[in-house]
């Protein structure tokens, strides 16, 4: 089997510099179009297994209305992305001493009208999430379809990152962010690079 490697066209120096200066980085055209189509198909073929992300242990919250499905080892195509993130974690560990040991990931689906209100993935260092990543895998996204990742960078400036197909965003898990209401179905893999061993 072909070894999974960090794509050769990722500008690693730029990504590290962006993370260092701003606490986030965006990679356009993260993978081949063939890969993006394949992962999109894999996601869509499991849509009926997604669950309401707002319900955790039977408790309903109103902070988010998307649907998620944790990646499973048999999801071979999306698993390649997780492997790439594991490899990239080594680069991040060398650059920033983050001590990342593990990657946890789920598919997320926002149907029209769905959102995720302001939050931090790791408030006050309460969990092992160091870096958050979101890979957008729907086939099309137009500028007026909403669904932006609205993120406050480490210097306090706000950015609206459009969920363009085949775009991968990395950001520090302690940063404040939200997903604005999407007007069309918005598909992604959200993954966290963790300094502990994930509990899933
Ligand atoms: C999350 C999240 C951002 C996005 O799942 O915690 O903030 O752009 N996702 O989907
Ligand atoms: Mn988040």
UniProtKB/TrEMBL annotation:
Family annotation (Pfam families): 2OG-FeII_Oxy_3
Superkingdom to which the source organism belongs: Bacteria
Any one biological process term the GO annotation gives: cellular response to hypoxia
Positions of transmembrane segments: none
SMART domains attached to this UniProt entry: P4Hc
GO molecular function, a single term: peptidyl-proline dioxygenase activity
Swiss-Prot/TrEMBL cofactor(s): L-ascorbate
Ranges of residues in domain Fe2OG dioxygenase: 101-195
SUPFAM superfamilies, per the entry: Clavaminate synthase-like (SSF51197)
Key words, A-Z: Dioxygenase, Iron, Metal-binding, Oxidoreductase, Vitamin C
Name recorded for this polypeptide: Fe2OG dioxygenase domain-containing protein
């Amino acid at each position: 089997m072909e070894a999974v490697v960090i794509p050769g066209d990722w500008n690693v120096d730029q990504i590290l510099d962006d993370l260092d200066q701003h606490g986030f980085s965006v990679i356009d055209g993260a993978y081949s179009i063939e890969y993006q189509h394949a992962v999109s198909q894999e996601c869509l073929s499991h849509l009926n297994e997604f669950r309401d992300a707002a319900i955790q242990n039977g408790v309903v919250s109103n902070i988010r209305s998307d649907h998620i499905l944790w990646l499973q080892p048999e999801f071979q195509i999306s698993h390649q992305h997780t492997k790439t993130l594991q490899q990239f974690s080594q680069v991040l560990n060398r650059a920033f001493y983050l001590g990342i040991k593990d990657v946890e990931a789920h598919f997320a689906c926002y149907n029209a009208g769905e959102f995720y209100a302001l939050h931090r993935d790791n408030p006050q260092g309460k969990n092992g999430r160091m870096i958050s990543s979101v890979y957008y895998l729907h086939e099309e996204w137009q500028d007026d379809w909403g669904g932006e990742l609205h993120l406050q960078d480490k210097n306090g400036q706000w950015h609206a990152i459009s969920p363009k197909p085949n775009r991968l965003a990395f950001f520090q898990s302690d940063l404040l962010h939200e997903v604005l209401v999407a007007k069309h179905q918005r598909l992604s893999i959200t993954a966290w690079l963790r300094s502990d061993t994930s509990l899933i």
